[in-house]
Amino acid sequence: MFAVEKKILSWHVILACVALFIGTLFGPLQALEHMGINLYPALQAVGLQSYYQGLTLHGVLNALVWTTFFITGFLMYVMVKTLDFPLTKPALNWAGFYLMVVGLVMAAIPLLLNQASILYTMYPPLQAPWYYYLGLTLFVVGSWVSGWGMLATFLAWRKQNPGKTTPFMALAGMITMVLWQICTLGIAAEILGLILPWTFGLYGMDSQLARTLFWFTGHPLVYFWLLPAYVSWYGMMPKQSGGKLFSEPLARFSFWLFLILSTPLGFHHQFLDPGVPAVWKFLHAALTYAVFFPSMLTAFNVIASMENGGRARGGKGLFGWLLTLPWTDPSWATQALAMMIFALGGVGGLINASYNINLVVHNTAWVPGHLHLTVGSGVTLTFMGILYWLIPHLTGKSLWSKKLALWQAWLWFAGMLIFSRGMHWIGLLGAPRRTMLGVALGNYGSADWRVPTLMVGIGGLILYTSALMFFVEIVMSAFYSKESATVEMPVAEPLHAEPIPAWLNNWQPWLIATVVLIVVAYGPMLIQLISQAQFTSPGFKVW
Amino acid sequence: MIHIHKYEKWWIGLTILMLVVFAMLVGVSAFSKGFQVPEPWMRVDPNTVKESGPFADANLGLHELAPGKYEAYLLAQAQPWRYYPSELTIPVGSTVTFYVTSVDVQHGFRIQDTNINLQVLPGQVSKATYTFVKAGEFPYICGEYCGVGHQGMFGKITVK
Q1: ipTM metric
Q2: Shared-domain flag, residues B15 and B60
Q3: Is residue A431 a contact partner of residue A437, using CB atoms and an 8 Å limit?
Q4: CB-based contact (8 Å) between A501 and chain B?
Q5: Which of B17, B98, B106 is most worth mutating to test chain A (most A CB atoms within 10 A of its CB)?
């Protein structure tokens, strides 16, 4: 059953893990640099030209490629499994996959040749060759096409099952892919409308407009990373905990809120931009507070579900249920640790979003500290935990070593706490983000930087050790595990078997709300920025 | 309607209360107490900004408008990675309004140990005002990646 889907998923997972493997290679180089040991001069012999080339590869491969491959494969599989309905047009999903591969290769060439060391935010007027941007475009379009394959299947299922409520994880997966389609219109407009014509010299660049279009996609992008983790936390972990999903209707409600609220708040990345009026920034700050609401709903719901599991396994008292949870199950434990780190990231995110408080942290090391708690742990560690059941599910063989997987997760947890504590701390001391801090320290740093940079370095090295353990585990499990095992995809039941009201199953009102909110929050400013655009900047290659 | 557990209702209520209080605090501090983020000031052409207007060579640096009141015009540039000018000296108690723009790529302008932090874009002028009540040295640094020399892009304000 689902042989085709399993094959498609496997290829997505392989490419995702290869990207993560290459992307994480640069982590320890950055960690060592912050401790004052710059290995890049020695690496010029193998073609790595600078710290910033490595940093670009680190950001693009980890944040964009690992996530997007994993997500498009995973959500497709979760949907067909929970609908119990195979892909109706698998050719679309294959086409999407191949487009992503072609796009990745096109973008990888200039990256490896040091022609596109512009970091993953690719802010113009830093200018890479045109085929870098075209490669990124094909990569995103490929993920769209995979999403269309999912949509076709979903619509066919609905036609055959009129009036039936969509299973939670299928709905959540579709919402995530629809959000992705809507929000990537920003980066599509930036690349096709501004950047590509500019690389061909047709007109100059207005970098304020480019930033605005980038962040139209940039913030919902983090929800595109996060929501598949939420799919697992809501839809699978209660089952893995031995319990049930505490409130399925509120889980659905959260996903609908993420659909309507993820996009119209990109100005919270631009609070300090010169070209956007304060009142618009404040509106986006308020909407960012609003999108914090479904995350708080999620926190309550997933913890209550785990409590339900812990108690079903015999846990007693106010906190006794925590001890009876399956801490020896690598998949569960890895994701539980991811959740804990993510909670810290959520708190920091609220600070970042708090309008004028952003003046303290904008463009400082605090920000990548935050990003590593969220996408670097909440998301990435969750995906690792998912792979700890998914790989045995796909291969029919048990995990190679449960012990190694558990050690891996705890090391990631410990390393990330040390690393991100150092990053947040040094950010508050004024250290800029995405900078060779080992050099900057001698230029304008102070003695206060020494302890936190050391923490960043040590934490980063622990994280890399954990990453290597992860790769050993998955490679050994995929190819060398001998013990047969039948591992099913975990699917949690709702605690209360209640009918889902129509408003939580009906797309129309939510899609209308999504469009209206985007038009209100972005429309007037976009019209103003476009009508007053000054296409003056030429491209610069300053690396 | 859907069934919501009593504790979850309390949680929802507390969350909404917390977010409303946060938004009000931030809003009041910004719009009534004047602790504000940067706003649009003026546009320039990054290709000619060095030649004429407020960022012409002769006009860069400090101008005393009244006793203890200054304005400072600064240009950010990659290759070499530096600000023009790279040093400013002012008396203790001075209020300075900074105007910063870029001649090439995006930069940052953050004065360490203050709340001055600007995104600097070519074509836009970023503006912020600060009163220096303490003597000492305040580096201003670039927080936005601007090429391989980014980590060496900084200047210094001496307050004495």
Answers
A1: 0.96
A2: no
A3: yes
A4: yes
A5: B106
